[in-house]
Write a structure and sequence with these properties.
There is one protein chain. By secondary structure, the protein is an all-beta fold. It contains no helices and 11 strands.
Length: 120
């Protein structure tokens, strides 16, 4: 069974920084693309950033230049460095990953989410 577990959320003042991490565990061959989503209260879930196995990354326009996604394949982790945080960045942040197991068909798994609150 594959699990994704996020960590690193919390309360931060506007302009501050946080680093989120997501660790995958279980039986699988490798992880393909990894994602960070967020869901503000009362709003739909949105894609924040994605990173391919090659290391190529893409970002939502709202976070470009402020957030950086990275991955550590030997550790099966993906991180999101968030700088210059704004109140509108407040949301539950969720990790998602396309994981390849014995069937060689990618399956997408979600973490449980971690709360980020940006407030003075």
């Amino acid at each position: 069974q594959v699990q994704l577990v996020e960590s690193g959320g919390g309360l931060v003042q506007p302009g501050g920084s946080l680093r989120l991490s997501c660790a995958a565990s279980g039986n699988f061959f490798y992880i393909d693309t990894m994602y960070w989503y967020r869901q503000p209260p009362g709003k739909e879930r949105e894609l924040v950033a994605a990173i391919a196995k090659s290391g190529s990354a893409d970002y939502a326009d709202s976070v470009k230049g402020r957030f950086t996604i990275s991955r550590d394949d030997p550790a099966n982790t993906v991180s999101l460095q968030m700088n210059s945080l704004k109140p509108e960045d407040s949301a539950v942040y969720l990790c998602n990953a396309a994981i390849i197991s014995s069937s060689f068909v990618p399956r997408f798994y979600w973490g449980q989410g971690t709360q980020v609150t940006v407030s003075s």
